Amino acid sequence: MSHRAANLPQLLSEARRWFEDALFASMEAAGEQPVTTAQASVFAMLDAEGTTVSELARRIGVTRQTAHQAVHGLIGRGLLEQTPDPDSARRRLIRTTAEGQRVHQRPQATIRVIDSVLLERIGPARARALREALTDDWGEPPLVTAP
């Protein structure tokens, strides 16, 4: 990581990019088909029982259109499927296919290795503190008025 960032949001963004760069390079080296960041985020945010595109967009922090494009790219590759929502005739749920589950196992294993590399580099105490800080409930985002 470059550490050029001056504030916490930039540092968090650089940290995420470090993980993504490691993951995407590792997947390419293993001969896996490349995916976009949005497509990788879709897999990370899916519930086992299925998730709507609107909910995926909210969780990922992108527009519904961007989530829709990512989802349909993965549907086209046979990794996701759309199914009717049993609770609503108007909604469709996005789920992984058997092939999608198989393909998703490698990145999950790779992320565990990347995690262990980070643990070696920054040490167990700092890695634990980082994880605790990121999983703590920060409450509602503050509304800050201009000074």
Structure characterization notes:
By secondary structure, the protein is mainly α. It has a single domain (8-135), classed as Orthogonal Bundle (Arc Repressor Mutant, subunit A). The chain is 61% helix and 10% strand. The protein has 6 helices and 2 strands, in the order ααααββαα. It has helices spanning 8-29, 37-45, 53-60, 64-76, 98-122, 124-135; strands at 80-85, 88-96. Strands 1-2 form a two-stranded antiparallel ribbon. The longest helix is centred in the last third of the chain and has 25 residues, at 98-122. The radius of gyration is 18 Å and the shape is globular. The model has no long low-confidence stretch (mean pLDDT 90).
Write the layout of secondary structure elements.
Blueprint: H1 8-29, H2 37-45, H3 53-60, H4 64-76, E1 80-85, E2 88-96, H5 98-122, H6 124-135
Antiparallel strand pairs: 1-2
Helix pairs in contact: 1-5, 3-4, 5-6
The whole-number mean of residue pLDDT values reads 90
How would you describe the shape?
globular
In the predicted model, the low-confidence regions spanning at least 5 consecutive residues are none
What is the domain total for the residues? 1
Task: Note the main sheet.
Answer: 2 strands, antiparallel
Helix content: 55-70%
- Our estimate of the beta-strand percent is 5-15%
User: What's the architecture, going by CATH?
Assistant: Orthogonal Bundle
Query: Roughly how many Å apart are the termini?
Result: 33 Å
Order of strands, widest sheet: 1-2
Would you list the SSEs in sequence order as H and E? HHHHEEHH
The CATH superfamily is identified as Winged helix-like DNA-binding domain superfamily/Winged helix DNA-binding domain
Structural class: mainly alpha
Number of strands: 2
Q: Helix count?
A: 6
**Fold-level CATH name:** Arc Repressor Mutant, subunit A
